[in-house]
Amino acid sequence: MSKDLKKISVVIPCYNRKSTIEAAINSVLSQTYPPLEIIVVDDASDDGTSKILESYSLEIKVLNHDYNKGVSAARNYGIAKAKGEWIAFLDSDDEWLPHKLERQMDYLEKHPETRILQSQEQWIRNGKKVNPPKKYIKKGGQIFKDCLKTCIVGPSTLICERELLREMQGFDENLPVCEDYDLFLRIAAKYPIPLVDEILITKYGGHKDQLSLKTPAMDRFRVQSLEKIYSQEILTPDQENALLDELILKLSYLHAGSLRRGIDETLYHEKLNIYNKKSLMISEK
Q: pTM value?
């Protein structure tokens, strides 16, 4: 491995994770390819996390938010303060295998055109290893269409050019969840996302404070992202068709769900009419 290879800033967003943050940080400190810096953004934790972070004062840089701003703002703050040319994200409840960065930097040295790179991951749920559902299995290359249904790019598996993240204006802070779906879909619309086809992280789940478990009907936010991307007119005709198909499908599910629950479904009904008409106009061209 070249000694002058570009350096890595690790960004760990953290909110009330005193039970997991030590393992996450230690998994970075154990890397066979040491990063340039480890930035932990404490998003106004109030559970004692800050005391744990103080014990790593010589090994990490801690950035603090005065109030809880959410994971997108925390990651964006870390990106803004990073010195490395590459950013590697790690969620505060995940862990890297010791050779994670080394394997990815080996790939980047051999493929210098790469701007973003992910790896496979293993899942632990409630203390037991489980197989990820097929829809979450990582893929590499031109994966825009694969990313439309759900996010198949894991933040903790990534290494990404800092300049690419700035070019894409980072994570959308208006999205309380699905911010990863939004950013990586925007990136996949323009660039390939290669894959090191090897398990390099352990992803933990099943705990009660997971945003995905606390937030019902997450397709609401995927629809918000799809509408935004569609309005930006950045897609090829083929990508636009695929996005419209997925947008209509998600709106159909949300509309049906609203009817079942007896709640106002007017907005989804109106949006369905709008995008069905757009899709019809494209098909008639």
A: 0.92
